[in-house]
Amino acid sequence: MAKGRRTDFVPRGSQPTGGGGMDAGTIQRIQKMQDDMKRTQEELETETVNVTAAGGAITITITGHQRVQAIKLDPALVDPADVPMLEDTLVAAVNEAIVASQAHSAKRLEAVTGGVNIPGFM
Predict the structure, then answer these.
(1) Count of domains in the chain?
(2) 66-102 pLDDT, tens per residue?
(3) Which domain range does residue 101 map to?
(4) Which among 104, 91, 84, 93 has a CA at the least distance from the CA of 55?
């Protein structure tokens, strides 16, 4: 051992703090939030949002995980002579449905986290 060297020195951050300085109540709250987040994520998989677009001519049903379940078209919207218009309208409607689904999911998850952004959860 070198002369004058302390043998009891432990660098900051490497000392055991019993949970990173968190008390048992904080750890329990975090664990509950994690459980609630997992449950909410599972629920969002089957929760659906219905979005109407193109003046009500298109209705899209989409899950909280942004999976399109159904698309309903008003037959008057289908013009074989103008397929590009139908394609553009469908793209816009699907994008609108995705935005609505994301907003729904964010609102549900915010209710669990209290607005705290947790990486990996939407």
Answers:
(1) 1
(2) 999 999 999 999 999 999 999 999 999 999 999 999 9
(3) 30-113
(4) 93
